[in-house]
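Summary for the lay section of the report: proteins are chains of building blocks that fold into shapes. Here we show the chain for UDP-N-acetyl-D-mannosamine dehydrogenase and then a coded description of the shape we predicted for it.
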Amino acid sequence: MAEKNYKIALFGLGYIGLPTAALFAKNGFKLIGVDINQKIVDSINSGCSPILEPGLAKLVKDGVTKKLLSASTDGIEAAEESNVMIIVVPTPIDENNCSDLTAVISACETVSHGLKRGDLVIIESTVPPYTCERTVIPILEQSGLKASVDFGVAYTPERALPNNTLYEMTHNARVIGGLNEESAEKAAFLYGKITQGKIITVENLVTAEMVKLMENTYRDTNISLANELAMVCESLGIDAIEAIKAANFHPRVNILSPGPGVGGHCLSVDPYFIIEMAEKQGIEARLIKTARDINNHMPHHVAQMVENSLDEIGKSTLHSNIGILGVAYKGNTADTRETPAKPLINDLISQGAEVLVHDPYVSPEVIINMGAKPVKIEEALNCDCTVLITDHDQYCDLTPAMIKSHIFICTRPILDPERFKNEGIIFKGVGRPYVPNYSLLDSNDFEDKRIILDGAEKP
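The coded shape description reads as follows.
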């Protein structure tokens, strides 16, 4: 085994596929990336990365300059010229929250037309358990070749976080499952060339498929616990962020931060793959379902916070202008996949509000397609109510003097509430109920040192 013996065709040049391709090229492998989007292909062949990710632009430029990295829309030709095919295409869910394997099936069909004896096919796309055995291999065998006899199959899930993708790909552990021992060994050799992390070989394909789903389901469930605790704390007048921080000093407790909902292609999608397969086996994945329901509810909870807050100052969502800070699902990225900002915007528009959005990374076209108006940050901060959704670094520098809105709702724990309340700003957040600074209130604002908040008397 040596780099010179391999030529790789990688299908799917998205947030994970392109960094993977660039890393293989960096480590001396000749790789051709395949994508159905001609603009992406043209951009890569010109030495430019179409994806905003720290360090990726240089890797792409270097790979193209050294003639180790190229891109094409012709998947059959790419498969014919290669002896390793890696499939990293999207696997979304449909309207029934079931896996949509259309892209995986299409890529496998393309590969089958160029498959040869001795080839290795690696699936990286997140898929439900038994997808490799029951879907991928039968399609590949339409080539007339026999899996395990004529060609190998391996599965290895990616583990990478946007805005830190290259570091995680080169340092995280890599889980690999193979159809047979030879398939697993070849895949382990290849990925061992691009990561310093541990290579973990599991028993078979389906175990590796399940590992990825377990990881993301764990995180989704943990976040749902934080979100449910946050909503309970809001009702009790408790600062959930402070309580969670204190609880996490327990050596066996690690509650994640609550927020406006879960976005991205992993946490908001992968648990449904387990639910889908469990139901086919006659098992109800109750905890996983409930976690998904809680996290899906959070954007609607934030919309209700907006409505209640406006009502408290004698306004209505109808005809109000609502500023939104950030529509990317994660800070410092342009990634809006499954972003909780979208259902929030939908709720606010359905209630008759005008929604004004600022996001330093997301294009105006994407914002307009969400039904909102792209604006400068000053305009978003000068609305009847402003809601911070995304924890972009820029928003960490907000000061009370910049907030011109009547109400500021901060759904991420990135700002100090007291700093804003001390300046008389109505500052609320997920898990952070509004308790005014009474030293700033005029005596006419309350009677007998009590004030009505959220429909209940608070001392």
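Put simply, here is one thing we learned. The CA atoms of residues 106 and 275 lie 24 Å apart.
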